[in-house]
Amino acid sequence: MGCPYLEYRRESGDLAFDRERAYCTAADRFVQPMRADICNDRYDLVHSDHCEIYREHAVGATEPADSAEEADE
Amino acid sequence: MSYEDYLSGEPVIVTAALTGGVHGKEANPNLPETPEEIGRAAAAVEAAGASVVHLHAREPNGERSFATERFQAIDDEVRRRADDVIVQHSTGGTAAPNADRHLPLRTDPPPEMASLDMGPLNRYDHLTSENTRALVDSLHEEMRDRGIKPELEVFNDGHLNEVHGLLERRDLVEPVYATLIFGGGTLTRPRPRNLFNAVSNLPEGAKFNTLGFGPHQLPFATLAVLLGGHVRVGLEDNVYYRKGELAESNAQLVERVVRVAEELGREVATPAQTREILGL
């Protein structure tokens, strides 16, 4: 299961694409292709451990980080 | 290679890194991602003076791919649209499994060249490309078996030690060709003295290529021209033409560095000259 803040969108603001691309709703921006591996928990990557944006957002949210991870499972 | 090589006038090899695997159209909508876009870009940079195209593969949605099939689709488009450009595949891939790193070498025909990262490097807080010696040796072995020229990617001075170590462990086909890379993080700090130092620490007879990330692309290319080296530019390494102005295309970046080289007295190598210089 990937990051709960990940969405696939074709457009945001001034940017529009022919195909849906990874979008981080925590950072409100499209995700770099390499970082999408973290968002999607590909290879040995885990968004809750390896994405500083997720971790910062989870800590800053009202829900504690552990709860956010549990909701993701 | 040295300033004396600049004075002797060896043609300069221009490599265009068209797409990369780190950023995509979210950074610059002009960055090519699909096989057709990359094929068109290859033809355009060849017309502008590049003789080598450094290629990464993408999934249809722009995310990274290491699949042989995706590289094959790109190569087919490049060879269909460009005249004689030399195809160089990346084998790099932060956090990607070692087995996947071999996949770009298995197209038919194989690429004439492929990158070989010489050691570990970090990106962001938790992404590391380990590039163990075992992986370096394994990739080199497959390149050797398939007749692919390795482009030794040197991201910092420690990797220079690894170049010498690789030469002790393995019998590389001459000339050794190393790309000296400068930027932030675990890369060598982009300062001219560090390029001079790196060049002086290369193995005897080695030829070098240089790239600087972001705003360092043009100055480091210029320094390489003056030091008798070769240059790499492109949207993989730098999405801007100048501060605050996104580059229109890879060809725009190639055109600029070709102008610089020619103004400084270096002829730009054709693909045939590049094959001769690098022993392809």
Give a written overview of the molecule.
- The complex is a heterodimer of chains A (73) and B (280).
- Chain A starts with 5 loop residues before the first strand and ends with a helix.
- Chain A contains four helices and three strands, in the order E-E-E-H-H-H-H.
- Helix content of chain A is 34%, strand content 26%.
- Helix content of chain B is 38%, strand content 19%.
- Chain B is built from ten helices and 14 strands.
- An eight-stranded parallel barrel of chain B has the order 1-2-5-6-9-10-11-12, surrounded by eight helices. A two-stranded antiparallel ribbon of chain B has the order 3-4.
- In chain B, strand 3 and strand 4 form a beta hairpin.
- In chain B, helix 2 packs across helix 3 and helix 2 packs parallel to helix 9.
- Chain B starts with a helix and ends with a helix.
Key structural traits:
heterodimer; A: 73 residues; alpha+beta; 4 helices; disordered C terminus; B: 280 residues; alpha/beta; two-stranded antiparallel sheet; 38% helix; 19% strand
Secondary structure category of chain B: alpha/beta
**Distance between the first and last residues' Cα of chain A:** 7 Å
How many helices of chain A? Answer: 4
- What gap, in angstroms, lies between the N and C termini of chain B? 19 Å
Low-confidence stretches of chain B: none
Q: What is the number of helices of chain B?
A: 10
Radius of gyration of chain A: 12 Å
| Proportion of residues in β-strands of chain B | 15-25%
Helix content of chain A: 25-40%
Stretches with pLDDT under 50, minimum 5 residues of chain A: 64-73
Percent of residues in helices of chain B comes to: 25-40%
- Whole-number mean pLDDT of chain A: 85
Task: Please report the total strand number of chain B as a whole number.
Answer: 14
Quick synopsis:
The complex is a heterodimer of chains A (73) and B (280). Chain A is an alpha+beta fold.
